[in-house]
Amino acid sequence: MTALSVSTSSAASLRADALVVGVAKGPKGMLLAPGAEAVNEAFEGKLAEILGTLGATGAEGEAVKVASPAGLKAALVLAVGLGEAAEDGYELEALRRAGGVAARTLAGAKKAALALPAESAEQVEAVALGGLLGSYSYGTYKANGVGKEPVGELVVLTARKGSKDAKAAVERAAAIGEEMNRARDLVNAAPNDLTPKSFAAIAQAAGKEHGLKVEVLDEKALTKGGFGGLLGVGAGSANPPRLVKVAYTHPKAKASLAFVGKGITYDSGGISLKPAGHNETMKCDMAGAAAVFAAVVAAKRLGLAVNVTGWLALAENMPSGTATRPGDVLRMYGGKTVEVLNTDAEGRLVLADAIVKAGEDAPDVIVDVATLTGAMVLALGTRTFGVMANNDELRDNLHTLAGEVGEQSWPMPLPADLKKGMTDSTIADLANMGERMGGGLVAGLFLQEFVTEGTDWAHLDIAGPAFHESAPFGYTPKGGTASAVRTLVRFAEQTAANGKA
Ligand code: BES
Ligand code: MN
Ligand code: ZN
User: Is residue 170 part of a domain?
Assistant: First the structure.
């Protein structure tokens, strides 16, 4: 794991393998960003010119290397692009991405110092978080066990002389970034290894390590409790379902949040089997549960004054002689019946049980996170998640918070007219499928049926951004991304600060 620290030393005097500076697109061409002054001096003021000759333009994502002159204690200088030059402070997301590009480019180096524009504590945190997320590599199944060797140590340089808040900012980045990387590990794990049972065991071990209370309902307990959604989805699999509760409580908490995650460890579609080309990445279908778990642990590590309960709805969706059939009726936790018309609409079934269960504690807000529909990916693309809620203010708030922490999201409606197809079931209270058009919203409307009257609830459909299939960019690697973790943590922070949700 990459070690993070902060230093107020001059870039020139710092011993490291590489020094990272920022370049940006100015009105008159490429320019050096604040933080690069001492490095530029060592180049006798010619750093911008040299980088320009080497092709640097300042564009986001750019990484240009140049050998250091005498006078620097690092052998290499790396310039990373920040995009458009900012007159009054660089945006946090530009800094996170630049930190990410630097860490990815310097994989294998022992120590790198980041001389990026990090003046405020927030900017220090952004550079550190981007660096930590960019250094991520998943190597569990590689011969060397680590995959691409990450950069060993990242030192964030800041001009904030002697300020304690810079140190606190780096510690925050470590808490959030390490938990995000934990979520990524869970998503990237092969589905033959990450089953509902092994996921629950990992949650128990990690929960114990961080002093969180973790309770696991196994298939026996689920049967006894009447969790028809989880049991119905898991019925076809040799790996039975689990419902995991992870509780973080704070003695001064004035509000409580419940986060519910879809945890389908593999989604084959079940009897309504997915065709080839649609199932290769379906190990990512537990990304919601991974995000929820990571967010609860991060809330604990940050010591937030709010109670946060995470619910992981874990099952494997497989076809077999014992699998749920299209046409079966399930009795969900709480008593509602659902006619399963398509076994590939399984996420809403496991979530329904967990949402009802979460509602029993009467939390102030329930937020569920799920790789729920292909329709949401068609609507918003692969980098943006959809936000739905039974309360417009809550929906817009989550969308705003997501933007603040660098997550792309968009508010989506829950139009009541789209419910019709689902409530048309001739034999059950609901069908698990309805209108084909607006499928992402239909899924949201299905979930809404299981929210206790009077409880605020929001739904994040992360089917697009949860798993990144194209080339890495910024701090986003291929594979699991930890989508929604930062939004959940930010929401918990806001709730703690306000003393209410
Ligand atoms: N896990 C999928 C949704 C998904 C698609 C996640 C692409 C990530 C990337 C979900 O269980 C599913 O299969 N949804 C169906 C619902 C349909 C049968 C109503 C879908 O979106 O096609
Ligand atoms: Mn499915
Ligand atoms: Zn699914």
Answer: no
In a domain? residue 367:
yes
Quick one: 224 and 321 in the same domain?
Answer: yes
Residues 108, 188, single domain; the answer is no
Which residues 6+ apart lie within 8 Å of 155 measured at CB? 5, 6, 7, 14, 16, 111, 112, 113, 114
Q: Atom 17 in ligand 1: which residue has the minimum CA distance?
A: 345
Q: How far, in Å, from the CA of 346 to the mean position of ligand 1?
A: 8
Atom of ligand 1 at shortest range from CA of 278: 7
Short-list 260, 261, 272, 202, CA closest to 233: 272
Q: Are residues 46 and 187 in the same domain?
A: no
Q: What is the CATH number of the domain that holds 133?
A: 3.40.220.10
Query: Are 253 and 365 found together in one domain?
Result: yes
CA 5 – ligand 3 centroid, Å: 39
Can you give the pTM of this predicted structure?
0.98
Report H helices in 84-235.
92-105, 121-134, 164-188, 196-209, 219-225, 228-234
Q: Do both 204 and 249 map to the same domain?
A: yes
C-alpha closest to that of 200 among 239, 145, 236:
239
CA distance 243 to 156: 40
pLDDT values of the chain reduced to their tens digit, one per residue, 501 residues: 899 999 999 999 999 999 999 999 999 999 999 999 999 999 999 999 999 999 999 999 999 999 999 999 999 999 999 999 998 899 999 999 999 999 999 999 999 999 999 999 999 999 999 999 999 999 999 988 777 889 999 999 998 766 789 999 999 999 999 999 999 999 999 999 999 999 999 999 999 999 999 999 999 999 999 999 999 999 999 999 999 999 999 999 999 999 999 999 999 999 999 999 999 999 999 999 999 999 999 999 999 999 999 999 999 999 999 999 999 999 999 999 999 999 999 999 999 999 999 999 999 999 999 999 999 999 999 999 999 999 999 999 999 999 999 999 999 999 999 999 999 999 999 999 999 999 999 999 999 999 999 999 999 999 999 999 999 999 999 999 999 999 999 999 999 999 999
Q: Is residue 174 part of a domain?
A: no
Query: Which residue, judged by its Cα, is nearest atom 9 of ligand 1?
Result: 463
Q: Which of 242, 348, 357, 490 is catalytic?
A: 348
User: In CATH, what number is assigned to the domain containing residue 200?
Assistant: 3.40.630.10
Ligand 1 pocket at CB < 6 A:
267, 285, 342, 344-347, 371-375, 377, 433, 439, 463
Alpha helical stretches, state H, 278-346: 287-302
- What's the domain range around 141? 3-158
366 and 293 belong to one structural domain: yes
Q: Are residues 119 and 248 in the same domain?
A: no
The residue contributing the CA closest to ligand 1 atom 5 is 374
Atom of ligand 1 nearest to the CA of 439: 19
Same domain, residue pair 252 and 186: yes
Buried b (16+ CB within 10 A) or exposed e, 17-27: bbbbbbbbbee
C-alpha 228/C-alpha 221 separation (Å) is 12
Q: Is 348 a catalytic residue?
A: yes
